[in-house]
């Protein structure tokens, strides 16, 4: 197949998908920061995008029609970084149905990384949403010109290209910050994330519903959001898209942000400055934090452990932050989700926690034992690399709606550097 990757946002996701597609024998291009004519002047089987629904529909239709003029009408897959309902901006059943018809007409599907949110979307009538986990790949692929120049973007690449090279994922350091933050990360427990969402006014009844669901999920960590909403008797109102959008905004505050506050406070009380925070909004809880910076992400491997307290958008352990930590050789220690077993496998009991007290216990056991940290990091990385390999996940993602393709290369070339 020939696959184009594009969109603004968490481009690290696309780096990994690009390398995995090439490893699978496909031809792929990272059309970043934008799509230019030289990369779409050929048959393309699929387009995977990060922000498809921020582009005007007529532009999407023109792009699809132009690519189809070369003989292949592409399948379009939007990778959801937010709730799909929020992505499409539909607030009524009629608007949901209209968006669903448009997606069917133009062969658009929405890849949702959270199983409970995908289930919620199905109940709301979004038939084009499917669930598949995000995954990892150990390499990043680039193309070397005859003069030695390396290109990551806007070059079609496949195993057949003699200039193809692979770099370990961690070699991509990304945007450089204003200072060397290694001393702030090395040997510490680190967390990068905002401490509060934007202020939202909410109907008191919606807030009560969100608080009831949050309480149910804290009492029973194995529950995901949709099951907890059913348990709280919210099947009726949750069929209304506008109510669901309002509920999700409040739920992010009373559950996800409150979890972050509880865990961060417990760890700062237990470990002091050995627990380092980056992000906005922590001052409202009396917690000192470093300003938002791209630097620490490239230093995850230097930390004693890298914390995750959950996503603001989703109820899954498998999302961009947790996978980025693993791909950058960090030791991930995470709040326990309903699907944590899928991410952690045999090391789940040692690397996940249910409350602040358990989080302190997990980190205290790791703090002065570098051999244990190294063992757990290796075991976890091997598990994720196998069970959440994008080479396993992508064939299923591409299978729905993608036509049979002649653009697949079977040969394998070791081009690692």
UniProtKB/TrEMBL annotation:
Its EC number is 2.4.-.-. Keywords: Glycosyltransferase, Transferase. Residues 260-388 form the Spore protein YkvP/CgeB glycosyl transferase-like domain. It holds the Pfam family Glyco_trans_1_2. It comes from the Bacteria. InterPro entries: YkvP/CgeB_Glyco_trans-like (IPR055259). One of its GO terms (molecular function) is glycosyltransferase activity. This is Glycosyltransferase. It comes from Azospirillum himalayense. The lineage of its organism: Bacteria, Pseudomonadati, Pseudomonadota, Alphaproteobacteria, Rhodospirillales.
